[in-house]
Structure formats: structure tokens, C-alpha cells
Design a protein that fits this description.
By secondary structure, this protein is mainly α. Helix content is 80%, strand content 0%. It is globular.
């Protein structure tokens, strides 16, 4: 359900706000909402320049770049198609972990990945026809 909310909200913001302004506001709000949870850890990070650089790199590669690319894709792709592609992320992440880091998933983990993909794809495909595949 949260995937559907994310896709529809991102599509709406992408249509209404040009460029990446909507994404910048969403990131700032997200940072403020989670600030109380991470303030203690952040206080430790800011004392070490190496950790600040690592945190900035993680923020760019883990949030800013992927969400910017998703927003660009969502503007060019109907939400239903985008939802199907987005549902493949857990499987792609598992394969990347295996290929790049040598992480091996057991049967239970692969079943979990498959269930996430099926649930996300099923949610996207089972929406009423009037809400599916509206232009982004």
C-alpha cells in the first residue's frame, strides 16, 4: 500500500512541480522528521571529517540520486508501468548484493524477495481501471 501511495504522490508532485523542487522539499521534510531519531548519532559523525564525507556520499548515492532518477522516470512513464518496474527493486538489490558483495541469500530470503515483488506488482495491477496508467 505504501508503494502505491509513494508512486501516486510522486507522480502528482512530478506533474505539478517543475524540476526537482518538489523532491528537495520532500527530502528536507524527511530530514526534519527523522532528525530527533538521529541527532545523537549525527553529533558523533560531525566530529570526524571522514565520517561526514562518508555520510554525504551515502546520502547522495542512497537517496538523492535514486529519487531524482525515479522522479524523472515517473514523469515519462505511466504510474502502473512505473509501479511494476519499482517492484523489481528488491530482486535487483539482492542480485547486486550477490554479484558485487558476494552476499548469498537463502531460500527464505529469496521467497521474501519474491513475495515483496509479487505484492508490489499485484497491488499495482489490481487497482481499479480508472486509477491505473494515468499519464505522468
Amino acid at each position: 500500500g505504501f508503494w502505491v501511495c509513494y508512486i501516486l504522490t510522486a507522480a502528482s508532485v512530478g506533474r505539478r512541480v517543475p524540476g526537482t523542487g518538489g523532491l528537495a522539499v520532500a527530502m528536507a521534510v524527511g530530514a526534519l522528521v527523522t532528525l530527533p531519531l538521529g541527532a545523537r548519532g549525527a553529533a558523533v559523525v560531525v566530529t570526524d571529517p571522514g565520517l561526514v564525507l562518508l555520510a554525504a556520499g551515502t546520502a547522495l548515492l542512497g537517496s538523492v540520486v535514486p529519487y531524482t532518477l525515479e522522479l524523472a522516470a515517473l514523469r515519462r512513464t505511466p504510474p502502473g508501468v512505473f509501479g511494476i518496474l519499482l517492484s523489481l527493486e528488491p530482486a535487483v538489490a539482492a542480485l547486486a548484493g550477490w554479484g558485487m558483495l558476494g552476499q548469498v541469500l537463502g531460500v527464505r530470503q529469496w521467497v521474501a524477495v519474491g513475495l515483496v515483488v509479487l505484492a508490489s506488482g499485484g497491488t499495482t495491477l489490481s487497482r481499479p481501471r480508472g486509477t491505473r496508467d494515468r499519464g505522468a
